[in-house]
Protein 1
Amino acid sequence: MDTGMEYKKNDILTVTIEDIGNDGEGIGKVDGYTLFVKDAVIGDTVRCKIMKAKKNYAYGKLEEILVPSGIRVTPLCKFHRQCGGCQIQAMDYEAQLSFKQKKVKNNLMRIGGFQEAFLEEVMEPIVGMENAYHYRNKAQFPVGTDKEGKLITGFYAGRTHDIIANTDCVLGVEENKEILETILRHMEKHHVPAYDEKTGTGLVRHVLIRKGFASGEIMVCLVVNSEGKRFPAQDELIEALVKISGMTSVSVNINTARTNVIMGDEVYTLWGKDKISDTIHVREGEDFSLTNRGIVFHISPLSFYQVNPVQTEKLYSLALDYVGLTGTETVWDLYCGIGTISLFLAGAAKKVYGVEAIPQAIEDARENAAYNGIKNAEFYVGKVEEVLPELYSKEGIRADVIVVDPPRKGCDGECLETMLKMRPERIVYVSCDSATLARDLRVLCDGGYEVRRVRAVDQFGGSVHVEVACCLSRMK
Ligand code: SAH
């Protein structure tokens, strides 16, 4: 569309925000010219400065909120605009939920080709969080220095590696602050240098903190740029850390590689246990308020573990409900990680098979199965798109139900193709990216399946991310 208007960099415009993009940015129009304004909320009238101008649209920087939107709230975190973690903390939580519901529906329409009327029939209301703050059980804090050379820790500013000093992220557990301040004080006192990415020198790269919400157990892992298995004046540091209630494990992780990867492969426990434990319960009832059987997980600093255990219980209980087991079924859990879903399913299925690419995760899965006395779960290490076709062609494996929980990029084509050949009664797709979900659902539906139920579960309040569970059944 040619608007006739020409705008350029540094122009100041007043715009009313009418929509929100998939990354949480506000969208408004001036004379038919579209403006994308980060940190502006639907309903705001704002003054913005054009940072980058194209023919029909531009990216603007929020300069001033002239008339605040009715759904705008004051975020708890004063760094929410700089930090890369939360994109929509300034939106009322109910509005965040409706944004996420709409985002899932739009992706299913636009990418999946599903009709709106059909989606309105099969989509259930999004499952929200009771408390949209302090929900994360894990955080990895980079350690560095500020302009004056003072030791700091906090979070990376959006799309950069500049550290914003903040020991008290509102998404994390309250113990983080005391733990981080104890470590910084210790480093200052003993002149322990922070790692410097640019030169590859210095010692402390990151601090990983994880808490078992059910057990109350806390783990601290110091990621260091050294082959040494000790930490400077570690006895004194440990003495200070163990005073913090719940402290269960203190370790170092060795990472001398000059990469962005946070953790190295080796972990040495300095004090306490090697792992913390946590319990995830199957939940029942309309609003998942009934607590049923629990599965205990033992988690090391390197293990993958869901970061929002409260919502994970709801998401996986929903998936279990969608799977609809009677006790006679053979179920495959693809992209199974440490087997959280597999172990959930095992209690109600005849047999569960899990497939996962990371060997360490499968080790955890097997250990956790044994620990919980689960004998009907078996795990395979390897890429789903390699393991599944091979087992299908060589052993003719079959499934009554297949569950998939892939990473953001979704399922591999080979994986989808083999799933279709296996002809399970039902497929339950758990997704952390509704765009790739929509793409994959199209393939499954063209291959003879029908979407029965879809429900989004918010795991990440304040951010634009949302999880979705979807149940498909084979058409007769
Ligand atoms: N359901 C799991 C989490 C799944 S996250 C849990 O709750 O623990 C997605 C998982 O897929 C990750 O563990 C990742 O390592 C694994 N993965 C990614 N690509 C894969 C592939 N091509 N084949 C097998 N596993 C893969």
Protein 2
Amino acid sequence: MTENTVTAPKKIIFSGMQPTGYPTLGNYLGAIKNWGALQEEYDCLYCIVDMHAITVRQDPAQLRKNAKNLLALFIACGLDPEENILYMQSQYHGHAELSWILNCYTYMGELGRMTQFKEKSAKNEANINTGLFTYPVLMAADILLFGTALVPVGDDQRQHLELSRDVAMRFNNIYGDVFTVPEAYIPKSGARIMSLTEPTRKMSKSDEENSYVSLMDAPDAVIRKFKRAVTDSDMEIRYDQAEKPGISNLLEIYANACGISIDAAVAEFEGKGYGHLKTTVGEAVVGNIIEPVQGRFAEISKDAAYLDEIMKKNAQRAAQIGERVLKKVKKKVGFVV
Ligand code: TRP
């Protein structure tokens, strides 16, 4: 007799990444690398948010290329496009539709308080467009469209997630339980990788070139960046984030790149000099991460038809989930459906 087990539906995880440049080593070790392990327990959508990207002027050919490359890179980093839904935001119209509706349930005041809006408009004075202003509403739409329970986000996106929750609750208060109110996903593991030149700040691709390693950097550039990494003026290799942020960051990167504990990493470098540490960490990153990822990326990128197929199929899978929520929302607000 076969056992008749009823399995509860899996919770949904949603995350988005802009196709502007490539993910950094920090994005990889802190997020992408660990996403692969979530597929067993959750239904995961990883969306390439090209619609968010055009809030800043983009070169069209470059944007398209970046978006496709990011998809290939996701796969190269170990995300299985059958087990996860990897797709382009602009290829499913639901994002734009829900975003419009949610605009009508979000206040100017709320959006005006967003730190990222203030920062980005200070940087882009010549192009403070309304898309930049309503950026968080589109992000709320991304999340709420799929009944998302959990969102892996960095600190810089917390305020946006908080807004998504507020809008969801506001809508639910008026119309009943339409949206799942999302929460931040706090990973069980996942490193917090800091800048190589200012190790008290998080590694970010919006900082200067030498401060971060991109997954697509040439191996010799990676080694060079590690050789230039900022350390401190004593000579001891020990893990101490407060007193020795640069050394601690290198140890953290090494431990993660080699899959060993920080203690084991510290033990390996006992009695060694900073120069040796920097070179060894650089080589481990290149050998264990950069080269394998870039090798797989090159393979995947060769097959344009395969990538097109993945995009098409996954946008359809996303739509299948999204349409249920979108229909409900349209009905609730009074559209003819
Ligand atoms: N705004 C996010 C960022 O710049 C990207 C993003 C868009 C996102 N939609 C999302 C992240 C939904 C999480 C969930 O990093």
